[in-house]
Amino acid sequence: MRAFAYARPQSLPEAFALLDQHGPDACALAGGTDLIVALRNRSLRPKVVVDLKRVRELQPAIDQEDGVVRIGANAVMADLEHDARIRTLFPALGEAMAVVGSIQIRHRATLTGNICHASPAADTAPALLVYGAAVNVASMRGNRRVPLERFFVGPGKTVLQPGELATSIELPLPPARRGAAFARVTRRRGVDLATINLCCLVESTGQTTLAYGAVGPTPFAVTDESGLLAAAGGDADAKDELLAQMLTRASPISDVRGSREYRTAMLRVMSRRALATAIERLRAA
User: Fold this and answer.
1) Fewer beta carbons under 10 A from the terminal one: N or C of the chain?
2) Residue 232: other Cβ atoms inside 10 A
3) Does the predicted TM-score (pTM) go above 0.85?
C-alpha cells in the first residue's frame, strides 16, 4: 500500500471541495470494503482518501416519504437487512444483502458503495433493478437523479462524473401486491462471488421483471408485460420461448467461477425457480 493523505470532511460542500481540488488523485471512502483491497493491491493509487462517514448530509438514515424509501449513502447492509421496512416492502433486497460477503463485511459495507463499485456480479444490483431503484447524485454543480438501469456503464464504471457523489438510493413504494425472489449460484458455500445471480418480481397485474448479474458487463433487467410468464397453467413451450428471448441480452463469459456454457444453462434453470417462488409469494401476499 502506498502512502496517501487522509481527509475527513464534515459536510458535503467540504467533500466536494476536496474532490474538485484533487480530481482523479482523490478517492471517496464510505465502508471501505472494496477500496481498502484496491489500495492494498495497488490497483488504486490515490494521493488523498476522502472519508465520508462523518459528512452530515450522508448519515445512515432510512427515510420513508414522498412515495419512496430513501437509503442514505452511509447506511450499512447489516442494518438494512434487518430493517422492518426493507424486510416488508423489499424482501428480495434483504435476501440479496444477506449473502454479500461475511457478517463482518455487511457491518461495514454500504449499499450505495456496493452499487458505485459497479461489479457486474454485485448481489444487490438485480434486486434493486426489479424494484425500480434510482440513485441520487450530487456535486458542486447541482443534483440529479439517475435510474439504476442507466447508472452502470461497464465493469467498475458508472455515470458518476469527477466531483460527483452518490448521496442516497431511492426505492418507490409498491402500488399493489407483488412477489419477489432472489437467487444465485456460487462455487461453494460461504464467502464467494456469484457465478450468476438474479431476482424475479411478479406484479399483481401479471407483469414479470427479471434482473441478472454476472452474465454481462453490467447488471440488467428485462420485463414481460404480456403476463405470459406469470399466467397459471400457461403453455410451457411458449413460456420457455419467451424466457429465451428475454435472455438474449445476457452475454456470459468463461472464468474461474464458471464456463460460458454453464452460466447459459443455469440462467434458464434459476430463472424458472425464481419465477415459481415469486408467484408463490404473490399468492401468499
Assistant:
1) N
2) 7
3) yes
